Amino acid sequence: MLRKEFIQLLRDPRARFGLLVPSILQVLIYGYAATFELHHVRMAVLDLDHSYESRDLLSRFESNGHFELIATLNNRHQITDLIDRGTATLAIQILPGFSELVGKGQTAPVQVILDGTDSNTALIALGYINEIANGYAQDYAKANLMRTAPAIAVHLPDVELARRPWYNPNLESQWFFVPGTIGSILLTSCLTLAAFAIVREREVGTLEQVMVSPISRLEFILGKTIPFFLIATTQMILIMLIARLWFQVPFHGSYLLLGIGTSVFLLSILGVALLISTVSGTQQQAMIASFFFIMPAITLSGFSFPISAMPRVMQWFTYLDPLRFYLVIIRGSFLKGSDWAALWSQIVALVIIATALLAISVQRFHKSLD
Amino acid sequence: MENSVLVRDLVKRFGTFTAVDHVSFETQPGEVFGFLGPNGSGKSTTIRILCGLLHPTSGRAEVAGLDVVRSSEQIRRQIGYMSQKFSLYNDLTVIENLRFYGGLYNVVGGELDERIRWALAMAGLSGREHSLTGTLSGGWKQRLALGCAVLHRPRIIFLDEPTSGVDPVSRRRFWELIQELSAEGVTVFVTTHYMDEAEYCNRLALIFRGRLVALGTPTELKLNSVKGEILMIEASPLGQALEVVKTADGVRDAAVFGNALHVVVANADAAMTAVRTALDSRGIQIKRMGRIRPSLEDAFVALTSDGATRTAPSRADARTKSSCH
Amino acid sequence: MSLNRLSAITRKEIIQIRRDPRSLLIVFLMPAMLMALMGYGISLDQKNVPVCVFDREGSQQSQDLLKHFQASIYFNVVMVNDDYASLVRAIDRGKCSLGLVIPNDFSEQLRNGGEVDVQGIVDATDDNTANLIFGYGEAVVAGYSNDVQLQYLSSNGFATMNAPVSVQSRTWFNEDLDSSNFIVPGVVVLVMAVIGTFLTSLTVAREWERGTMEQLVSTPVTPLEVTIGKLIPYFALGFIDTIFCEAIAVFWFQVPFRGAFVMMFLASALFLAVVLLLGYWISAATKSQLAASQFSLVLTFLPAFLLSGFAFPIDQMPIAVQAITYLTPARYYLTLVKAIFLKGTGVAPLMPQMFALTLFATIVGRMALRSFRKVLE
């Protein structure tokens, strides 16, 4: 049985191609496209004050590595145009009288206009702007103080938050995404292949023939699923090589633990595939069901959007998603050096899901064929 | 001529495999022309080339005077085709399928209504127009498919194994329909591997391994292919009997046909004696023995005996045609 | 082109679609459920981030600092740890997202002046969330620092100093910086991209596998008639679906709609044409339902998710990848959707996107026609 599955699957050179190349492409593209890092937020500046102070402030913005100055403007109307078209994400406007107010010790406003359509970028950019403005204010105040009362200035306290990013000290998006892609790729390919294989046989009619043969239900199911297990493992090894060698994502954990975790994950995915195949009469329905599972499974798994940002109810929902647990395992293995103590609950969760699904599927399978 | 098929030196290769090997023949307008041969002999490939569904590797073929490669679209308008896989839409009702194919052949309005009535009557489905096609059993579906193929009154129709998997009664009825169409002047080009059906054809082409091994009326084939006469022997055990008979005097050839042996001999009377002696000496019991008229299976075996088949191609039907004198 | 043949094909497709109620139900149910799930689930906003503290001093000043954190809408102090180990455990277990360590000589440092550091520990596996949390944390600490400075200055006889600079920010188009307003339009695009393609991707392959295609191509029908005939019903379905999804976005998720309906319809029709033709092409080229589904997934969901600007800002990607995004139809549609919904943009500025989609439709359409052959091999 096993052999037949394998032969069937591997005979088609297009299938072989289709198994490996998309996975490789996905890892590479995710690795480079998926990023929230802001390297060059497009910024326009309008300085109507033309003073030393205004220039000082603006130069701090320009020299900050996150911003890219794309235009120095002359009048306010240009701002509207740029932001509307999306050419600039933000515009900084300093009105005339800025240096005067600063000199008098009064608060001088700096106007920032932000394109909020991408709120994440806008928020982060705003954070940087506030930080820069604050820094400017601090320096200015301190310089002033130094001039007038150096003794006091020296003892002026300045509390700061020292950033301690763990596991990903340079806050590299790739370290976050690339291990995650292993999970999402395994999910999509394993699920679609497995679900289709079984339904295909039903649709084309060979299922009945096999059912007539002296083979138990469990054997049949195992025979169908083990080849996919092996294929998934191959894909995984391939992607891990890319992750380690190409993207240089560090691996601190235990390969054994990861292996166990992956196996259990795959089992749970196969469970989903089997369940899908029992509710689908045709390949089209299998496809719909697979998509229906995959789309939320990936977007809500914590793959790119944090679970912590979800409403409580949605967070409970994610406990049904095997990928959620697997991501903890794989990210933990790569970046955190997680050990058994840290990961046992994820593994147990996956085992529970896998068992439940397999049990339901075996049950339903019996019913649907009779 | 507008209803005939012309094939000259047709060759079709798939990679290194030659499916059709220099086949040549012509059909007469209005005849029922049968393409007979076992599975894989090249029948379907030939029919598909004639319908424009495959391109020949070399050679020439014309349908209704049009070249199959250059004018395949025009040919499509004038022919009817029933593919082997039974391809009507199971999720459409009978009448929906009829209307669909009618539309594809530009049969519309009153003409379409009339043709549909005719097709329903022909298939025996009047009153069942709104049944889902998927719920029909083999014989009904097959007649419906035939109806769909001829809504536009084509002068030539191609039927690829139209009766495979259908019960004998339905098969008989189907062939009656074919003969009715032929009587109206339609050329019917049929492929089949059922020898008994081949008897219904006006002329037959025997195909084996891509080659045309014989061409003629059924009677011609039966009489001319077998060199000698045929003995039918029922004996037990059959396998041993076969071995013994083969070596007997005057025996040219012997093969298993169902539960009997068909033995090709130069002279029936002389051979019968020789065979009886041989079998008796081995203690093999003869249940029946007699001279029979050669059947198409005999003809087929004789024509293809330079190769492999030692048994008739369609065993289920071989039994029906043997008769003893 | 024969109208009879075309309408025969269209009618047949409609009958088949109607007879498959399960698929039909799903075509409407699935987008709704996906929009609900993803519209609610996907968020980048961090609020009430749980904070745990290892306060090594436990003084008035450190308490003050904590009060600042507690007062911020972004943070919620949930745990006070007695030792470093338990803080580490809390972070690793996910009990808190920010761990603060206040030095044991905090108040002394404050008296001495100069830079005083409070450690902020964040599990930076998710770099974006970490970035946001650090940003907010720094803002809170800066606020505290300001207070401390003012206190210091006033206790030394200085009048309260004004901050020399204050940032007045105004956000256009998405005033509350609600990530839902930028995610939900993206979800609409994502869902339509997937559904559009898969509506058609199975249709041709299925007929080949069942054998009905062979019968079909033996008739005089032309590839153009088959393509258009098959697409018309799916286009209608897809269009209704799109409007449905957009209605959900506006009425359920309260995404503002500031543009013109006509623009939205036109843009959606174009995008739909592209994805339907894409699905059709996949179907005709692969002739196998398994292959068709694999390709559809890779060619629609992933680009729409990754490369359309849905989640990840395109202009932050490496140039090579940005180039690839130009090949993604979803990118253009997303720009159109966001512009029409949030900015109320008119026709003229959006011509490039419309043109791009039209170009795509033409090219994919031609490829689809070409790959649909009336010959069996």
Explain what this protein looks like in three dimensions.
The complex is a heterotrimer of chains A (370), B (325) and C (377). Chain A has 370 residues and is α/β, with parallel strands linked by helices. Chain A is built from 15 helices and five strands. In chain A, β1, α3 and β2 form a beta-alpha-beta unit. Chain A starts with a helix and ends with a helix. Chain B is 37% helix and 27% strand. Chain B has twelve helices and 14 strands. In chain B, α3 packs across α4, α3 packs parallel to α5 and α4 runs antiparallel to α5. Chain C folds into two domains: 234 residues, no CATH class; 107 residues, 3-Layer(aba) Sandwich (abc type-2 transporter like fold), CATH 3.40.1710. In chain C, α7 packs antiparallel against α9 and α10 packs parallel to α14. Chain C is elongated, with a radius of gyration of 29 Å. The model of chain C has no long low-confidence stretch (mean pLDDT 86). The interface between A and C is large, with 118 and 122 residues. β4 of chain A pairs parallel with β5 of chain C, so a sheet runs across the interface.
Name the chain pair with the biggest interface and residue counts per chain.
A-C, 118 and 122 residues
Structural class of the helices, strands and pairings of chain C? alpha/beta
Protein structure class of chain A: alpha/beta
Beta content of chain A comes to 5-15%
- Cα Rg of chain A: 28 Å
In DSSP terms (H or I, runs of 4 or more residues), the helix count of chain A works out at 15
Order of helices and strands of chain C: HHEHEHEHEHEHHHHHHHH
Mean pLDDT of chain C: 86
Instruction: Please mark out the parts of chain C with pLDDT under 50 across 5 or more consecutive residues, or reply none.
Output: none
Poorly predicted spans of chain A: none
What's the structural domain tally of chain C? 2
- Across the major sheet of chain C, the strand order is 2-1-3-4
